[in-house]
Amino acid sequence: MDEGLSRRDLRIPDAGRGQVVGLYGGSFNPPHEGHLLVAERATRRLALDAVWWLVTPGNPLKDHGDLEPLARRLAAVRKLGAGPHHRATAFEAAYRVRYTADTIRIARARSPHLRFVWIMGADSLTGFHRWQDWEEIARSVPIAIIDRPGDTLSTLSSKFAIRYARFRVPEHEAADLAYRKAPAWTFLHGARTAMSSSTLRDLRRG
Ligand SMILES: Nc1ncnc2c1ncn2[C@@H]1O[C@H](COP(=O)(O)OP(=O)(O)OP(=O)(O)O)[C@@H](O)[C@H]1O
Ligand SMILES: O=C(O)c1ccc[n+]([C@@H]2O[C@H](COP(=O)([O-])O)[C@@H](O)[C@H]2O)c1
């Protein structure tokens, strides 16, 4: 599992005291311009100091049949060139965790001096209530959802959006999200791209 990964790859990144870090988890199999758009929009609109791209050893809800090795996906994320305040890490592999609830618990315990926001695309929110301990996640960190073609409506009628409707932060107050006590979430609109890893994999297969 950890083949080809260096100690740096497996370490939890750090940031200065009080800084706001966006946790952006994904399979990134492979990464693409849609991922960049998400990370950049989150950075700008949430006034993030850093984004940590958490390259998962394997999404617990996905089939891993065509999942590229972790080291290769991590290298590909770095190659995207997201910018100096972005860090790509595979620390979930080092801690032998797959579930985001565990990842967030570890990040918060190891870095109590930072503020975290969980970042995800609209399609992820649609099935968020199937994630392990999803309500614990909702109560532990603010969440930012970035719009994705085809998922706007299903997102806003998702179990999460309905249950936590009164904790939604208006988009024009998104820069404040990291300072709100969870549960707190916002939905960020803007330019969208339909790009997906599955499209790229299909193209590669020809
Ligand atoms: N084009 C996009 N617009 C908005 N969010 C996106 C986009 N592509 C991916 N995301 C989000 O980025 C995160 C990581 O996505 P992932 O690595 O699974 O890519 P994907 O393109 O959705 O992959 P696949 O096609 O294999 O399902 C998820 O939160 C997903 O919602
Ligand atoms: O914790 C869970 O139960 C869970 C279920 C599905 C997905 N996730 C996380 O969601 C992130 C996005 O996954 P993916 O495969 O859609 O890119 C990634 O960090 C996964 O580990 C987490």
Give a description of the structure.
This protein is α/β, with parallel strands linked by helices. The protein has a single domain (20-205), classed as Rossmann fold (3-Layer(aba) Sandwich). Helices cover 36% and strands 16% of the residues. It is built from ten helices and six strands. It has a six-stranded parallel sheet. The model has no long low-confidence stretch (mean pLDDT 95). Bound molecules: adenosine-5'-triphosphate and nicotinate mononucleotide (NCN).
Taken as a percent bin, the fraction of beta residues is: 15-25%
Report the span from N to C terminus.
28 Å
Structural class: alpha/beta
The whole-number mean of residue pLDDT values reads: 95
Per the principal axes of the C-alpha atoms, what is the gross shape?
globular
Low-confidence stretches: none
**Tally of separate helices:** 10
Main sheet?
Answer: 6 strands, parallel
Radius of gyration: 16 Å
Proportion in helices = 25-40%
Going by CATH, the architecture would be 3-Layer(aba) Sandwich
CATH class: Alpha Beta
**Strand/helix succession:** HEHEHEHHEHHEHHEH
If you consult CATH, what is the topology? Rossmann fold
Q: Tell me the number of strands.
A: 6
Could you tell me which ligands this complex binds, including any ions or cofactors? Answer: adenosine-5'-triphosphate, nicotinate mononucleotide
CATH superfamily: HUPs
